[in-house]
Amino acid sequence: MAWFGSSLPKSYKDVTDQVDIKGLDLLNSDNNHGNARTLFDSSKPTALKILDGENPPTEEEGLEDWIESDTDEQLMLFIPFQSTLKIHTLHITSLPPKKTAEEDTPMRPRKIQIYTNRAHILGFEEAEDIPAIQAIELNETDWDGDTGTAKIELRFVKFQNVSSLVLFVIDGDGDGEKVRIDRLKIIGETGEKRELGKLEKIGDEPGE
Q: Are 113 and 132 contacting, i.e. CB atoms less than 8 angstroms apart?
């Protein structure tokens, strides 16, 4: 059974299984941790298993089932879908350890910009010149104290015919240099299947 860090909105379902895993792309990720596929694992995050007293995975299975940024706090994630989606909500789970004086403790994401229907991932400088479909700023109160999950409700009218998302994590919720994300779930409705490998940008301006 899939793990959820937050409740689902009424009349909508988890459509994370529509992510085209092979097409994922991630920039500025620390290779010592997980990769883009890690974010869409349906299992409970290892950090929560340990907190809840459950048996952690073996060394062979891998303990670090999350991603962290590398050279600074920014991350860029490209998420193509197998069908067009109506996206209502994003669930982002981030479970950084408690801060210590000796370590550069990773942060939770704070500012996130979301783009739709791009044919490929955006470069960091490129993204700064393109208006986002929606800009998010998360506060401490947005994160569930038990699951480390923030439930982001999108402007649904802007996310009606989505073939891909780009998430640009601009910064974190502190003064560190690393941002950590453990899981990401997409909540909404599925539409028509698309032919994989032929993702095309829809419109040149947001909202087109």
A: yes
Q: How many C-beta neighbours within 10 Å does residue 185 have?
A: 24
- pLDDT, tens digit (0-9, with 9 covering 90-100), for 60-90: 555 589 999 999 999 999 999 999 999 999 9
DSSP the chain: ----SSPPPTT-EE-GGGB-GGG-EEESB-TTS--GGGGG--SPPHHHHHHTTPPPPPTTT-S--SEEBSSSS-EEEEEEEEEEEEEEEEEEE--PPPP-SSS---B-EEEEEEEES-SSPPPHHHHHTS--SEEEE--GGGB-TTT-EEEEE--GGGSSSEEEEEEEEEEESSS-S-BEE-EEEEEEEEEEE--TT------SSTT-
Query: Which is it for strands 183-193 and 13-14: parallel, antiparallel or unpaired?
Result: antiparallel
Full-prediction pTM beyond 0.85? yes
